Known about the structure:
This protein is mostly beta strands. It contains 2 helices and 5 strands, in the order ββαββαβ.
Amino acid sequence: YTIMGSVEMKYECHINYDDCDFCSECVECCSGKALTIVNNQIQFQADKCTNCEVCDDVCPVGAIWIETLKY
């Protein structure tokens, strides 16, 4: 979570597992360690996400993207 002014921002990660080839590029580049591999699936921890979107940039098949939610 990030608070900007009086608006609370939360980040949600979307992973299209049908397209994902589990190369782990997104996990390796995640500076906040928000992405991990558990039981052969990529897991996302929103509280660790910095919204840098590097995971989206490095995914060779475009299977991952971050959505910014405002509350």
